[in-house]
Request: fold
Amino acid sequence: MGIFSKTCEYAVRAVFFIAQRTADGSRVGIKEIATSIDSPEHFLAKILQDLSKRGIIQSVKGPHGGFYLDDQSLARPLSDVIEAVDGGGIFRDCGLGLKECSSKNPCPLHNDFLDVRNRLQSMLENITIGQFNGDLNLGTVVLKR
Amino acid sequence: MGIFSKTCEYAVRAVFFIAQRTADGSRVGIKEIATSIDSPEHFLAKILQDLSKRGIIQSVKGPHGGFYLDDQSLARPLSDVIEAVDGGGIFRDCGLGLKECSSKNPCPLHNDFLDVRNRLQSMLENITIGQFNGDLNLGTVVLKR
DNA sequence: ATAATAAAAGATATTTTTATCTTCTATTAT
DNA sequence: ATAATAGAAGATAAAAATATCTTTTATTAT
Reply:
């Protein structure tokens, strides 16, 4: 497995895709999202339903419905998606799995991991959901394969 | 879950513990290791058997047997343990789970993740299994709780 | 040689993650 | 109103990770 869970990987790819495809105010359906980011449709549906409930993304039912992002959502930091899906553990938990690891009671790698986690967090806090729309349009970055 | 799997967390904690407890040439049994690092005994046994087969740690059966580390093992980088247990994916795989992500075919986060992964890797390559023995003896770092 | 010890190995079980399928409900165009 | 559409929700299932228990094998002290 990678840094994030499969669930989280799908969520981030989907959110980037929705951002690009709905920048003009339109909506995009779950089938098209799943195909475009190469994820299992029904599994992704659950993930997006959860993100929708939490207000990270928007959705409308019925004909011409689908998922989309409003301006506020487009401006959100990517870290919000990770927090919503995987929880913020990756930004906070001990690298060796100790529940009470802290500067007062550190594991051997406490400071080293603090540094790595903080870099990861600030990186994800400084990326917005909508910021790759241009690159995705140009095809200079990809969301499948 | 954290950065690493539970399996990997147990492995690293165990290896640090074995390093400290066998620096004098003695050996330490699986029961004592499991208790001392707060891990399930039989599960940890499998992990250590695997590390032993791969030559990352050493073991001897029978009375006064147990696990220990020779000088070469004490000097190994911690990254060898992670590679052995979780595979090196954490140092190499795409943050968004794309199989073919590369500088030629990058995901939106390719460069950012490259940076984070490289930092993690070089951190783990520059830590040796035996380097915390002093701190563990002093109790300034811990392996449980 | 024998008994005691401790790792190795095998079988099984539980939990979590990932995935699929079906039914229900809300929305929109007609 | 009605039919079509598409997300929401619920029930199941498959796979992977985590955990436990039992039996076997190798080693050592006696």
About this structure: Residues 3 and 90 of chain A are 8 Å apart (CA to CA). Residues 6-21 of chain A form the longest helix (16 residues). Chain A touches chain B through 47 residues (CB under 8 Å). The two ends of chain A are 16 Å apart (CA to CA).
